[in-house]
Amino acid sequence: MTGEMSAAPHIPVLLDEVIAALDPQPSSLIVDATFGAGGYTRRLLDAGATVHAFDRDPDAIAAGCKWPETALQPPRLVLHPRRFSEMVAALAEAGVATVDGVVMDIGVSSMQLDQAHRGFAFAVDGPLDMRMAQEGPSAADFLNTAGEGEIADVLYTYGEERQSRRVARAIVAARPLETTGQLAAVVRRALGYKPGQPKDPATRSFQAIRIHVNAELDELREALAGAEQLLREGGRLAVVSFHSLEDRIVKQFLREASGSTPGGSRHLPQQGIGQSPTFAQVTKGIRPSAQELNFNPRARSATLRCATRTGAPARRAA
Length: 318
Hints:
The chain contains 13 helices and 7 strands. It folds into 2 domains: 15-110 and 216-309, Rossmann fold (3-Layer(aba) Sandwich), CATH 3.40.50; 125-214, Putative methyltransferase TM0872, insert domain (DNA polymerase, domain 1, Orthogonal Bundle). The protein is an alpha/beta fold. Strands 3-2-1-4-5-7-6 form a 7-stranded mixed sheet, sandwiched between helices.
């Protein structure tokens, strides 16, 4: 199996809503923090914006290098083969101090899920990998060496798996695990899966292990802080998340940044007293329309949150 991108079509989620939130202009400089197949970037470029796009997946960067906008002088598409948590440092190296917009599409991409050799999905059997950057410890490395308690903690924390200890015990007993099919079978047996159930119980465990292997929630927290630091006054932030753990982080970040946290008490003093809000015009979660869900069922769990940067100093460096 090669490392080429999947030929399966990739449909950007909430595309129209994201572009409306960012309001790109011919003079805009926008960060696509999660380039993937470039669905958001394509529309931003078509609107005349210049885009700095980030992706730690070398396959995504290799595909993006073929876009004609990368060869223009100056380029209108600048690709950064780095984690999006590093956007402040990467843009500083490129001579960019502020931007007009930042978009993030959190989590695993459709192309990664559709490529069996990347090991993200249990729908097709492949190596137990799950590494977005294709380097560092894999899911197999973690599951075959970690203690039962650590595995259980990961499953409970990142997958909200209520029977995490039972699943972890089954994983340790079945070691070594080498493929996604083997892991899925172990989880299903541990949880008493019956074919035809509405949701495969392996879903939660696969999500948890992927998040742990890629440190996704820490990356998200750092990226949000980076966006706050980079966005100019009036700049727009748009974040699409796909499960409650991610959305909770985004929601809490925007609540605190906009000064909308509940008042404190003598037991829990109010945070950030004296700090001016760094974001305003925060939207409630925007969900896909019924029309979008009809042609892209993968959008069903997506939530978009948007906000506009104020002129207040960033609360901390990313």
